[in-house]
């Protein structure tokens, strides 16, 4: 069920953002990436694990750096980072002991991230070159 819900929400949020024009601003998808990456920090706080919070914050910083890079240069970086975060969800439990992560989260987040990455990629492929221009 978590796979289906994650994929549906990942595509649904992208379709909604496109439909109402929220993603006309190139900052939209980088912000989504930062928010997605921040959830593991939230789970570390909920689980009361300072060691996990430290490790998760390093991960958040890395994804935030890629979000800034993508915002300033090419949103393809953001699409790749969303997909990479989905792959990270597959192995996260082996890398970090974070007691606050719900058991269903990795599967949900994996499919959400991959669906969001796919939505952004199709937007980049279908959009005129001057749209989503790099920030100056």
Features:
136 residues; mainly alpha
Report what the structure shows:
Helix content is 76%, strand content 0%. The protein has 136 residues and is mainly alpha-helical. It has one domain (2-126). Helix 2 packs parallel to helix 4 (76-95), helix 3 (50-72) packs antiparallel against helix 4 and helix 4 packs antiparallel against helix 5 (105-126). The longest helix has 23 residues, at 50-72. The chain is globular, with a radius of gyration of 15 Å. The mean pLDDT is 94.
Q: Count the beta strands.
A: 0
Please describe the biggest sheet, giving its number of strands, its sense, and whether it closes into a barrel.
none
Can you count the helices? 5
How much helix is in the residues?
over 70%
Structural class: mainly alpha
């Amino acid at each position: 069920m978590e796979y289906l819900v994650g994929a549906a929400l990942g595509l649904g949020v992208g379709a909604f953002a496109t439909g109402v024009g929220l993603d006309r601003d190139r900052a939209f998808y980088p912000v989504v990436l930062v928010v997605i990456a921040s959830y593991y920090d939230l789970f570390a706080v909920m689980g009361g694990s300072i060691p996990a919070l430290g490790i998760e914050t390093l991960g958040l910083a890395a994804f935030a750096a890629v979000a800034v890079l993508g915002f300033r240069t090419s949103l393809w970086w953001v699409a790749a980072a969303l997909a990479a975060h989905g792959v990270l969800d597959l192995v996260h439990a082996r890398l970090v002991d974070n007691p606050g992560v719900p058991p269903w989260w990795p599967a949900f987040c994996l499919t959400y991230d991959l669906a969001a990455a796919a939505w952004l990629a199709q937007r980049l492929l279908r959009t005129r070159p001057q749209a989503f221009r790099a920030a100056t």
